[in-house]
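B., you asked whether I could sanity-check this one before it goes into the benchmark set. Here's the sequence:
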Amino acid sequence: MTGTSQPEMLAPDGQGIARAAKLLVEGRLVAVPTETVYGLAARADDDMAVAAIYRAKGRPDFNPLIVHVPDLAAAGRIADVDDRARLLAERFWPGALTIVLPLRDEAGLAKAVTAGLPTVALRCPAHPVMRALLEECGLPLAAPSANRSGAVSPTSAAHVRASLGDKVQAIVDGGDCKLGLESTIVALRENGQWQMLRPGPVTAGEIATLLGSDAKASLAEPEIEAPGQLASHYSPGKPVRLDAMTAADGEFHVGFGPVAGHICLSSAGDLAEAAARLYAVLHEAAASPLPRIAVAPIPAEGLGLAIRDRLRRAAA
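And here's what the prediction gave me:
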């Protein structure tokens, strides 16, 4: 594509999905809606296609990608799926849980997908457009968030277009994302242990219900083995101050609950609503003429842990 061209805007119907699938099979990049955020998809078995993701996003090549699959059987062709993974998949797939598993030797993925690690991050998405696309193209799709690396994640087609422009060949416009927050990432370790690498819509408590409370459930900052672990991420391009009950001069105030702010994540104090609105609100804060951002306190419980994780990295 040239520097003056714009991405094709595709409808989330049979014709649009067929066109998107054709582009993906050809090794092109297509932004697609999921229930979490919009993903920048490419076929995960093609070195050049995956390299195009890294170029478009300006993404560090040590930061691995999530591979999207249609079901557990497809996951088993890529990774070693044990009983714990089956339990998680039966409970949370399709859905907003990514599972890090040992990579199979015969997986056939591009090396850059796993950033050279012996593991792979797999998710079975729930969004009907992404599911239809996986079925239509018949390929595992690598699909990180469809934005410049480190910037605020996109929850609408307009966000994608503003962030990536002509670096993506097409955008399937499926409206606003329902959850608005990236998937939870859990790594299954040896000796029955597990580790949460990124909090998200599926909570640690829900995972512990299946895998046991003695699991290794603390948030980790190990070597980068899954998306969203960089200390600085989701940046709106302005300084961000957290747990702010009031705004100082020059601050755009993001409210929550009784703290109204210039714009409120949820006036009812609903964490699910706040998660769904988080990135859209950060995009609005970034577009404000005020040079800094302040965010009201968010409870450090349940989905609030995932929201606070994203805000902490945005402020780093």
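One thing to flag: Confidence is low (pLDDT under 50) at residues 216-221. Otherwise nothing jumped out at me.
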